[in-house]
């Protein structure tokens, strides 16, 4: 049990970047969280940004905006603009408003709910169709790995992620497990890839 993650991040490439990193300029990027209602998207944001957790479930209507400044592995300051979306079917039509301008998408499922992992097929397909040319960074996170009744094994998640050529992490918004690693990975990837991405109205 617990949280594990798999990354095949190119460490050599990161080291090279570290050497010529510009420490003076703050970069900024947009990240969107997508996934079924109830998987813990808002809790992940709350735990990561405020280090708190609300055990009562409050549905996110449309989307909520948060921001966080992060120092990446190569010492680069990055301002992350985070859009936490409502995962219910009726909000799906609004999702393009949030992901269209994003450089990274965090697709969240619940490790106790295999259907929530299958739902990520929908989001991967949607992103592939609508923003395929934008080199968007897509990451999968299995949340609630503190719970004993896990139904999606780490192996299954790894296979799912590999079949879509994306990285997968396991986290717990309740304990905070895996979140630093997850957001560090996202930020490092963003800093590596931002120069190759279309600039989409960042602030
Ligand atoms: P969202 O609809 O994806 O934003 O999901 P929420 O963040 O609102 O969380 C839905 C429910 O799951 C809430 O009752 C949370 O307290 C609970 N929850 C979220 N993350 C975790 C977690 O890591 N572990 C456990 N045990 N419960 C969680
Ligand atoms: Mg929410």
Write up what this structure looks like.
By secondary structure, the protein is of the alpha/beta class. Helix content is 33%, strand content 22%. It is built from six helices and six strands, in the order H-E-H-E-E-H-E-H-E-H-E-H. The protein has helices at residues 11-19, 41-50, 95-99, 114-131, 154-163, 179-193, and strands spanning 27-34, 63-71, 77-85, 104-110, 137-143, 167-170. The protein has a six-stranded mixed sheet, with helices on both faces. Strand 4 (104-110), helix 4 and strand 5 form a beta-alpha-beta unit. The longest helix has 18 residues, at 114-131. The chain is globular, with a radius of gyration of 16 Å. The termini are far apart. The chain binds guanosine-5'-diphosphate and magnesium ion. Magnesium ion binds at residues 41-42, 60, 84.
The kinds of small molecule bound in this structure are:
guanosine-5'-diphosphate, magnesium ion
Proportion of residues in helical segments: 25-40%
On the 0 to 100 scale, the average pLDDT is 86
Number of strands: 6
Distance between the termini: 40 Å
Major pleated sheet: 6 strands, mixed
Estimated radius of gyration: 16 Å
Shape descriptor reads: globular
- The strand line-up of the biggest sheet is 2-3-1-4-5-6
In terms of structural class, how would the helical and strand content be classed?
A: alpha/beta
Sequence stretches where pLDDT stays below 50 over 5 or more residues: none
What is the count of DSSP helices, taking H or I runs of 4+ residues? 6
The sequence of SSEs as H and E is HEHEEHEHEHEH
Percentage of residues in strands: 15-25%
